[in-house]
Amino acid sequence: MGKLTPTRRAFLAGTAGLVIAATLPRGARASDGTQPFVPNAFVRIAPDNTVTVLVKHIEFGQGTWTGLTTMVAEELDADWSQMRAEHAPANVELYVNALFGIQGTGGSTATPSSWMPMRQAGAAARAMLVEAAANEWGVPAAEITVSTGVISHQASGQTATFGDMAEAAANVSAPAEPTLKTPDQFTLIGKDVSRIEAAQKSNGTAQFTIDVFRDGMLSVAVAHPPKFGATVASFDASGALDVPGVERVEQIPSGIAVYAQDTWAAFQGRDALDITWDEANAETRSSDQMMTAWAEAARTADLVAEESGDLDAALSDAAEVIEAEYRFPFLAHASMEPLDGVLEFGDGQAQVWTGSQIPTTDQAAIASVLGLQPPSVTINTMLTGGSFGRRATPDNHFVAELAQAARAAGPGAYKLQWSREDDMRGGYYRPLTVHYMQGGLDSDGNIVGWRNNVATQSILAGSPFEGMIQNGIDATSIEGSTRMPYDLPNARVAMANMSSGVPVLWWRSVGHTHTAYATETFLDELLERGGKDRVQGRLDLIRSDAGRDRAVLERVAEMANWQGVDAGNGIARGVALHESFNTYVAMIADVSDDGGQPRVHRVWVAVDCGIAINPRIIETQVAGALGYGLSAAMFEEVTLLDGGEVDQSNYDLYRILRHSEMPQVEVSIIESTMDPTGIGEPGTPPIAPAVGNAWRALTGETPKRLPFVAV
Amino acid sequence: MSISFTVNGAERTTDADPAKPLLWVIRDELRLTGTKYGCGVAQCGSCTVMIDGVAQRACVTPIDAVAGADITTIEGIEGPEAEAVKAAWTELEVAQCGYCQSGQIMTATAFLQETPNPTDEDITFAMDNNLCRCATYARIREAVRRAADTLEA
Ligand code: FES
Ligand code: FES
What we know:
The complex is a heterodimer. Chain A is α+β, with helices and mostly antiparallel strands. In chain A, 27% of the residues lie in helices and 24% in strands. Chain B folds into two domains: 3-72, Beta-grasp domain (Ubiquitin-like (UB roll), Roll), CATH 3.10.20; 80-152, DNA polymerase, domain 1, CATH 1.10.150. The chains are: A alpha+beta, B alpha+beta.
C-alpha cells in the first residue's frame, strides 16, 4: 500500500456515501499555495454498494462511460455489475484533460488522457477501503484481499462489501501514490465488460438534451442569416407573434429568437418572421469558385511544413513524373441529434443541460454572456446523439446563442433547438481542401521525389486556440501529410492558407480526412506505375522505426489473404495504411463497380491502439468510424450556390450511408502492452483511400474529386 | 377542436393545431421522449412510431390524421417481437450514441411482427430507411437476425 498523505483527500458528498478523490500528480496547484495539489474526484461509493464513476469525457457513442469506468473498476477490484457511470460536472481543476490543459473531449484523447488518472483513482479508493477494513477488523492491511467487489481477511474469516466500508473509508487518508496493477494482473481491462448504458439506449429511456424539460420552459428557435457573415438589417415580428403558442421575439447577436410554448410553435413562428438581411459582409462566393481558387493556390503552395533532400532536382532527373490534384468538399457533421441546449437562470446562478465537448470554455462563454462567474454556471453534460467534433467549437457559438437568447428574455428556463436545416446550413464544416501532388519515379520504378501541396482553411486561425499555429502552419491542416511512415527521398510538404467566411471545424479525424486519401491513393498510383505490389511495395518503403505501421499492414494482408488487387468475379481490392492520434490502422476493401459507382462488399481492418480496454467497443468504433468515412467518400458534400447560400438542408440532399451500403467489416486488434490510445477517429481516414485504390484497379482511375457519387 | 387517440393504451386528447406533427405532441405535450426528432421530413426514421400497428414517421404525420388511432411508442411496445428485439439490442450492444435506436427498434419490431422468418435481404431492405450516423448497421442486422431466430426457436 502506498504512503499516506497527512492531509485528507476524502470528503462526503451529499447525504450518504463516499466520494474518493485521489491525489494525483498532474493536478493543478491551488491558488493559495497551501495545498500541494487540488484533488480530482472520480469515484463515488454508496452504502448500497454501487460504485459510480464520474466520467470527465462526454459519452456520445464512443464508449467513454464504459471505458473509463472499466479503468476504475479494474484497480478497485470491483464487480462489474456494481459499477455505474455519470458525466462529471464542469470543473477544470478536477476534470482537466491533461493533454489539453482544459476539460474537454476531442482528438481521440479520452482514453489516453484518462489512463493514469482513472486507474489511480480506482487504486486509491481500493487502498482506502482496505485501510478502513483493517482498522475495523484490527488486522494488518497487508493481509486483506479484494476481489470482485468483496473485501476479505482470510485468517479471521471477515468479509465486507465496498458499501459496508464506504462510511469508514471516508475517514481514511488517500495514499499519495497508489500502486497500480501491471497488465498481466488485469481482470476487466481487455475482457469485453458489458457496455454500461446499453439497456437505456435499447428501450428509449436514455436522456439526451432534447429530452430535458423544466417548469415554465420556453422553446426557442433562432432565424439565422441565409449567408455566412450576413446580419439582421430589420425585421417584423408580427407574423410570428400571431402564431398560437409564440410568446415573444427578440433580436440577439446571431439572429432573431422566437420563444414559444413548444418546439413546433417556435419553428412555425420562426417561419412567419419577416427579416431583411444586411449582406454587406457576407461570403458570397460559391464553393465552386473557392475550389478553383484553392486549386490554383495549391500549385504554388510555398509554406514548407516538412522537407528532405532536393525535390526539384529529383523531379527533373526522374524518368517519369506523375501529378494529381485532389479536391475535397466542405462536409457537415450531420450528427443525428441536431444541436440543442437547455438553460435555466436567475438569482445569480445558471444551470445548463447540453452535450458539452469543451465544458471549460462553454461554461466561461455562458458566464460571460449572463454576467456571472464561471463557477455559478453548472453544466449538466447529457448523453448526446453524436457530435464527431461538432460540439467542440472554439468560439462556443451554440451555448453563447443559448445564453444570449436567455439573457434577452430574462430569468427563466429555455430550450434552444436547432432544426436539422439549421444544423446542416450552420457552417462549422470540414474545410474545403485541395491537394496538389507530384511524384517522381526512376527507371526501375522506385519513388525518387514526392511533393504534397495542401491548400486549405485553418481551423485554429482566429479562434482562441490560434496560439497553437506555428510558423503559419496549423497542424490540423496537414496532419497525416507529414511524418509519414515511409522513406520517401526528396519529399516536400507545403501549404497555402486559404480563407473564407465559412466557419470550419474539426470533423472526425480532422486533417486526416483529406491527407490520408491524397497520400495513400497517390502512393498507390506510384507503386502501380513502378510495377510494385501495393502491399509489398508499401512494406519495402516503411521506415525501420515504424514497426507498428508495418505490423498492422502485415496483419491486414494476412487477414484478407492478399494476392494482389484482382480478387476475381469483378471484385478489386484496395489497401490503405494510416496512423492518426497514435493509433495505427490498415484496411483492405473489396469493391465492385455497381453501375458506375463503387459498391464496397467487405473490409478487413487491423488496428493497433495499444492495450485494448474493451475489444468489443473498439470493434464497433472502428466499424462506425469506417462507415462514417465511407459515407463521406461516397456521398457527402456541402456546396455553396452562386451568391453564397448553402444548397443542402437535410438528409435528402446531404445523403449519408444507409444499411444496404454498409460493408461487412472484420477487425483484428494487435496484441499490445503499450499505453492505450484513442479509437473514436482513427478508423475513419483509411477507408476512402482503400476504396479509391480498389476503384482505380477496377477502372484505371482514382477518383480525384470527392465524393465519388454526385447526389 | 380537440383530437382524441390512444397512446400506449391510454386515452389522450389534445387541442393542438391540427397540422402539428404527432412527433411534437408525443414529445412536448405527452413528454414521451423516447421518440426522437432527427430530420422532420421523413428522411431518417428517428421518429418512428406504430400507428394502428404500422410503423410510421411521426414527424410528418399531422395530429388530425391520427384521430381515433392507436399509437404505440418505444415506451409502450410489448409482445414477443418487442421483447426479443429489445433484448437483442441490449445483448449485442447495438447502440453507439443511441439517438436513432428507438426508431430502429420500432421499425425492427413492426417488421418482425409482419415477417416471422426473414432472410438477410429482407432485414436489410426493411431497415434501409432508418439512418444511423454512427453506422451501427452491422450490429443492427445481427440484432434483428438474433431476435428473429429467438422468436422462431
Ligand atoms: S424525424 Fe421523422 S424521419 Fe427524421
Ligand atoms: S447510434 Fe448514433 S445515430 Fe445511430
